[in-house]
Amino acid sequence: MFKNQKTLAVARNLIGKILVRRVGKRLIREIITETEAYVGPHDLACHSSRGRTKRNEPMYDEAGTIYVYFTYGMHWMLNIVTEETGFGAAVLIRATENFKGPGRLTKALKIDGSLNAKKLGKKSGLWIESEDNKANQAKKLIRTPRIGISYSGPIWSKKLYRFVLRD
DNA sequence: ACCGTGATTGAG
DNA sequence: TCAATCACGGTT
């Protein structure tokens, strides 16, 4: 699903799907309720817009790669890489049903830099359940501008690239 | 509205 | 080197 769709479509379609995290023997299953699309190097809010750096290197790997980075001295952000290898686009998972906010989500699911650049799947212990669920079939989406990216200027900061599942 | 917190970045 | 910034969250 990450390879064959545009980043915006991936962001939209991830809403309502189930994010699964293995921590020890336990599986945490969470319905994704909020995502944001970072659509490529032309998108001034996207990390790839300023070229390849050590931090954003995983964004240039194949679709389905996990891109986790640390910000504000405290928080890990979880992204899934999209589009063609070498392009530099991703979807930020901002929240699930029980964990609102990207920093709280990663904390709850024990997601940190050790997952960076790994692939979604059983091996890494983080994946998306392929089956749709009821919430996905009946999903009612709201689109808004992305959060916390005012630095990207008047055009990109206004794009409706954030998707939220209506409560 | 303000600030903690520390890695990352780009400028010098 | 170094200062500014930051895809946040908790508190005032």
What proportion of the residues form beta strands (DSSP E)?
Answer: 25-35%
Determine the N-to-C terminus distance. 25 Å
Helix content: 10-25%
Supply Rg. 15 Å
* Secondary-structure element series: HEEEEEHEHEHE
Summed over residues and divided by their number, the pLDDT gives a mean of 95
Name the overall outline: globular
How many DSSP E strands?
8
Unreliable runs, pLDDT <50, ≥5 residues?
none
The largest pleated sheet is described as: 8 strands, antiparallel
Structural class by secondary-structure content = alpha+beta
**So how many helices?**
4
Describe this protein's structure:
By secondary structure, the protein is α+β, with helices and mostly antiparallel strands. Helix content is 14%, strand content 31%. It is built from four helices and eight strands. Strands 1, 2, 3, 4, 5, 6, 7 and 8 form an eight-stranded antiparallel β-sheet that branches. The longest helix has 8 residues, at 7-14. It binds a DNA duplex (12 and 12 nucleotides) through residues 36, 38, 45-47, 50, 53-55, 69-75, 77, 79, 92, 94, 101-104, 146-149, 151.
What tags apply to this protein structure?
single chain; 167 residues; alpha+beta; 14% helix; 31% strand; DNA-binding
Short note summarizing the structure:
The chain has 167 residues and is of the alpha+beta class.
Note the topology.
Elements: H1 7-14, E1 18-23, E2 26-38, E3 66-71, E4 75-82, E5 89-96, H2 102-108, E6 126-128, H3 134-137, E7 141-144, H4 153-156, E8 162-165
Antiparallel strand pairs: 1-2, 1-6, 2-5, 2-8, 3-4, 4-5, 7-8
The structure holds a DNA duplex (12 and 12 nucleotides).
